[in-house]
Design goal:
Oligomer: heterodimer
Order of helices and strands of chain A: EEEEEEEEEEE
Low-confidence stretches of chain A: none
Strand content of chain A: over 45%
Radius of gyration of chain B: 14 Å
Helix content of chain A: under 10%
Distance between the termini of chain B: 41 Å
Radius of gyration of chain A: 14 Å
Largest sheet of chain B: 6 strands, mixed
Largest sheet of chain A: 7 strands, mixed
Order of helices and strands of chain B: EEEEEEEEEEE
Strand content of chain B: over 45%
Number of helices of chain B: 0
Mean pLDDT of chain B: 90
Structural class of chain A: mainly beta
Number of strands of chain B: 11
Chain lengths: 117, 115
């Protein structure tokens, strides 16, 4: 398996522009997560999906952020308009269905490094 | 709500020395505990996890961690450091018994290994 795939790996844009980050989860995984990593705030969960349905978006910082999962093999995280404080590494992770009494590992993609000038 | 505190944002050891990375957690219910490793320009990779059962858990690359409920700790150790262990390490906690366990991460500890 190729693992979780994210694109682009690096994105440099100017303030006010729309940014779209993409993620392809591992085939067969039912959960998909979007995280943001910054020096100041560490790793933050932004939103997660179960079977393509958004379950918890309480970590999404503002209305400028939106995420979709139109099918089981694709998700996007969009920032519109982007601001310099959005500069961070954004990770996508996926996980197989939970088993009762157990916890399944989250598999992380390589991340997208976003720089907003 | 659960939380994680990693003591020491940077740890430096010599090659062959003991590695000890400290993690304390706060949780009102029995936790699930994890250590992840992040190599430069890569995503996080699971090292080991504690859910139930034996409190000493072994992971990949010779790492192990012990769940100590009385101390609310889950410290990560490795008897002998290798240069390839240089990375950032994250402790994380999740609440057991829920349909989905949200992971809460610590701030991370950067491990440097000197020759």
């Amino acid at each position: 398996d190729a693992g979780v795939i994210q694109s682009p790996r690096h994105e440099v844009t100017e303030m006010g522009q729309e940014v779209t980050l993409r993620c392809k989860p591992i085939s067969g995984h039912d959960y998909l997560f979007w995280y943001r990593q910054t020096m100041m705030r560490g790793l933050e969960l932004l939103i997660y999906f179960n079977n393509n349905v958004p379950i918890d978006d309480s970590g999404m910082p503002e209305d400028r952020f939106s995420a979709k999962m139109p099918n089981a093999s694709f998700s996007t995280l969009k920032i519109q308009p982007s601001e310099p404080r959005d500069s961070a590494v954004y990770f996508c992770a996926s996980s197989p269905v939970r088993l009762a009494g157990d916890y399944n590992e989250q598999f992380f993609g390589p991340g997208t490094r976003l720089t907003v000038l | 709500a659960q939380s994680v505190t990693q003591l020491g944002s940077h740890v430096s050891v010599s090659e062959g020395a003991l590695v000890l990375l400290r993690c304390n957690y706060s949780s009102s219910v029995p936790p699930y505990l994890f250590w992840y490793v992040q190599y430069p320009n890569q995503g996080l990779q699971l090292l080991l996890k504690y859910t139930t059962g034996a409190t000493l858990v072994k992971g990949i690359n010779g790492f192990e961690a012990e769940f100590k409920k009385s101390e609310t700790s889950f410290h990560l150790t490795k008897p002998s450091a290798h240069m390839s262990d240089a990375a950032e390490y994250f402790c994380a906690v999740s609440i057991s018994g829920t349909s989905y366990g949200k992971l809460t991460f610590g701030q991370g500890t950067i491990l440097t290994v000197h020759p």
